[in-house]
Specification:
The complex is a heterodimer of chains A (273) and B (320).
Chain A: H1 7-35, H2 50-56, H3 62-93, H4 99-108, H5 114-127, H6 134-158, H7 162-170, H8 175-186, H9 188-204, H10 207-212, H11 220-230, H12 237-257, H13 259-267
Helix pairs in contact in A: 1-12, 2-12, 3-6, 3-9, 6-9, 7-8, 9-12, 9-13, 11-12
Chain B: H1 4-17, H2 21-62, E1 64-67, E2 71-75, H3 79-85, H4 88-119, H5 124-138, H6 141-151, H7 159-165, H8 179-207, H9 211-219, H10 224-235, H11 237-252, H12 256-261, H13 273-282, H14 288-319
Antiparallel strand pairs in B: 1-2
């Protein structure tokens, strides 16, 4: 260590460190800015949480927006996991006519731009009783992630040896019981990857609720964007920076705790987003 | 046809007559099919209700008078398409979207390739670098855009003062106030947000290249640079093609970053095609028929572009 640390290595660590800093600096800045004094914000003098207090009372209240985000995220994650796991198992383990057609149909979702679906959905959701509905937003977000979830889970189930399942069936488990007791526990890691991914996308998304719900039902990202759009000329940058931090905390914490799952999700090649 | 029907009939009859083994097997496959359908039924329900029906619906809407508030009025053939195609905004939006796509891809691809080369070896310092570069991709595009919106603002952002000192612009001007400023500001945001994502994809491709190829080249006296050109880049072509497709498709459909950062301004200079769809539907025209028509055009264009790109990707795979 002592001998290998030459000037060249020093330069290398300095330059690569600078690259890392370039990517981290905007995040540090927004964190600093959200508590730093600025006469144009609710934190006029001295460091403090004035901007966060202002965010609490903004619009319908931070609590409402956070709750909306939680509802959307949970519906999206629950639906994607349920449909992905059941469908993935169906596609991996059963042979029947029409299977490939349905699978291709699921993959076709990747080819379609969000907007081309959101325009008709803005009308169609009314007809199926999901107008201005957070559950509707969650279901649409789950649909957009369905190719990823199905592909990932099908591959996971295909990798499990057939004998494991046959043994369970011979032991008198029904198909559903075998699925629940034996198959699902063996695909825990892919399930976590899918759940994490869908959560991050649903938590951060603002385009789907923009098309499908009104301002009162806005999840937090849309609520923050709406402030930028609605208040003509006067934008509270203090609330904006505080909002970015509130949005970023769960996303960054989950990312840091599940990096491996996250990277595996990225590289599976079926992500839309 | 006529000869086939009795043939099938006799086959079925034979099946029915031949007990019990065959019948059991037929019942078995039928039961397997039923179970298969049962397992994929949630998927099927979602896909039908929220994908197949809406796609049919958007086609129908694109051929109808359909206002945002009034709903369906009447069928109108290709009128919406005529209106969309004769809108001067469309040509500008297409031009800008292509320019933005070219710029983003040309900037993002080399950066992520370089970063992937930098961090591909698994070492502690490299792991730290990877995580640092990937953190922005955990933020949504909306959060990232809002972050940069504050960063670029003259009121709270630090950049105006810095650019003023460098003599590039006046501190009271807005970075997003000029067409070029708005474009570059968005490209920088996207490069920051996505570099890590493409870096990881490229890195996985790099790690798939067997190490002994490089060893053999080193023994033959090939320099690092010539190894890069002669081995890495040719073997990485499928990965490069894939990341390019993702970047091109994503940029062609750009919406969030422009909706938040520039709203298409100043003076509609950063209007993308998808932003125009939104405008038709909810802002300027409040005409869902026109929005649907443009959506259909984008959908068709994207399918064509993707098919073309996938063929190019397939071709490069074959030639390797």
């Amino acid at each position: 260590m002592k001998t290998s640390f030459t000037a060249g290595r020093g330069v290398y660590y300095f330059l690569t460190g600078m690259i890392a800093l370039t990517f981290l600096l905007p995040i540090f800045w927004v964190l600093y800015s959200s508590v730093a004094p600025n006469s144009a914000t609710s934190q006029a003098d001295g460091f403090g949480l004035g901007n966060y207090e202002a965010l609490m009372g903004y619009g319908e209240g931070l609590g409402t927006y956070l709750w909306n985000s939680v509802v959307v995220s949970f519906v999206a994650v629950g639906t994607a996991l349920a449909a992905g796991a059941l469908g993935g198992y169906g596609f991996a383990r059963f042979n029947f006519r029409g299977k490939n057609t349905v699978f291709l149909l699921v993959l076709a979702i990747l080819m379609v731009p969000y907007a081309a679906l959101l325009i008709p959905l803005a009308v169609w959701m009314n007809k199926i009783g999901l107008q201005d509905s957070l559950v509707g937003v969650g279901l649409v977000l789950a649909l957009f992630q369905l190719p990823f979830a199905t592909f990932m889970m099908r591959n996971a189930f295909e990798a499990i040896p057939q004998e494991l399942e046959e043994a369970a069936l011979l032991d008198g488990c029904g198909q559903l019981k075998a699925f629940w007791r034996v198959m699902l526990p063996s695909v825990r890691a892919p399930l976590i990857t899918v759940g994490l991914f869908v959560f991050l996308i649903a938590w951060n998304d603002f385009m789907v609720p923009l098309f499908l719900v009104g301002p009162k039902n806005a999840p937090l990202p849309l609520a923050m964007v709406n402030m930028r759009q609605q208040t003509m000329g006067v934008i509270d940058y203090g609330i904006t920076t505080a909002g970015v931090i509130v949005l970023a905390i769960p996303a960054v914490v989950l990312f840091l705790s599940f990096q491996k799952h996250y990277i595996r999700g990225f590289t599976s090649g079926a992500v839309k987003g | 046809m006529t000869t086939q029907i009795p043939a099938v009939g006799t086959d079925a009859a034979a099946k029915a007559r031949k007990p019990p083994n065959r019948r059991k097997r037929a019942a078995g496959t039928r039961r397997e099919a039923m179970r298969g359908w049962a397992f994929i039924s949630p998927t099927l329900l979602l896909v039908l209700m929220l994908f197949v029906v809406p796609i049919g619906f958007v086609l129908f809407m694109s051929a109808s008078d359909w206002s945002l508030l009034g709903g369906f009025q009447q069928a109108n053939g290709t009128e919406n398409f005529d209106k969309v195609l004769s809108d001067p905004m469309l040509a500008d939006a297409v031009k800008f979207t292509l320019k933005y796509t070219l710029l983003t891809t040309v900037i993002l691809m080399p950066i992520s390739f370089f970063l992937a080369l930098l961090v591909q070896e698994s070492r502690r310092w490299n792991n730290f670098l990877r995580v640092a570069i990937l953190v922005p991709s955990a933020l949504g595009i909306a959060s990232a855009s809002l972050l940069f919106y504050a960063l670029y603002s003259p009121q709270v952002g630090p950049l105006n003062g810095i650019l003023d000192k460098l003599g590039i612009m006046d501190a009271r001007e807005s970075i997003l106030g000029t067409p070029n400023g708005a474009l570059w500001a968005t490209v920088i945001l996207i490069a920051w947000r996505f570099a890590g994502y493409y870096m990881i994809l490229t890195m996985v491709g790099l790690q798939a290249i067997p190490g002994d190829v490089y060893e053999a080249a080193s023994l033959d006296g090939a320099s690092k640079i010539s190894q890069l050109w002669r081995i890495t880049i040719p073997l990485l072509r499928p990965t490069i093609a894939m990341t390019m497709i993702l970047s091109i498709t994503g940029s062609l459909l750009a919406f969030d970053q422009f909706y938040i950062l520039t709203k298409g301004g100043p003076n509609n200079s950063t209007m993308t095609v998808v932003l125009l769809i939104y405008r038709y539907a909810f802002e300027t025209r409040r005409d869902l028929g026109m929005a649907a028509a443009l959506s259909v055009l984008v959908l068709v264009a994207l399918v064509v572009i993707n098919a073309f790109q996938l063929r190019a990707l397939g071709g490069s795979r074959k030639s390797d």
